[in-house]
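Hallway conversation turned thread

IA: we were arguing at lunch whether anyone had actually written out Cytidylate kinase end to end. Turns out nobody had. So, for the record, here is the sequence (225 residues) and right after it the structure tokens. Reply here if something looks off.
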Amino acid sequence: MGHFNIAIDGPAGAGKSTIAKLAASKLGFVYIDTGAMYRAMALHFLRLGIKAEDERAVAEACRDVDITIRYEDGAQQVILNGENVSGLIRTEAVGNMASASSGYISVREKLVKLQKQLAKRENVVMDGRDIGTCVLPDAPVKIYLTASVKVRAMRRYKELQEKGKASSLNVIEQDIEDRDYRDMHREHSPLKQAEDAILVDSSQMTVDEVANAIINLARERGLGD
């Protein structure tokens, strides 16, 4: 039997990574945070002084880059060209660069290749924007996880407040709407629900409820048989 892969897609702020992490830990699977891989790539571009609109420079910078994910003491570490960059990729600048550059075919092809390699080696839970449609089209379990813009904005707002960062709920809502639009209308691998994915709206659900629903689905689809 090959490895069992679970694909979770959905818009920014739907709670994909929190839920994917929890489901993976309950199942003893490896959690692959593809967003972190795009952020590592974005950090690579920023360090090279590349502007998001310079597609040729972006494509060239993709050639000689290696990004992988490994676990140390149960914590995910993101490795960019041999350097652990986990603590450097959560800034707003990196997030914006990741969103702007992730639409380029050169970036996607490189990262999809790296992600497919990871999924061949392990039982994985992978989350992102195009996992079920593009990276793991044969995954036995595909989830499209969403939540209303208001709920997603409020979660982000609370997150920033806890970190002591001032923010405006209206600005966050607008940012989320803009990012949704960009993700859904980009030319390559736009965000969309795979035909065989199950839609889960987490607006009124706890993280545990969503993770358990995914695990039950995995069991129905033959996990552990």
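OS: looked through it. Residues 1-29+123-219 form a domain with the Rossmann fold fold (CATH 3.40.50.300).
IA: good, adding that to the notes. The mean pLDDT is 92.
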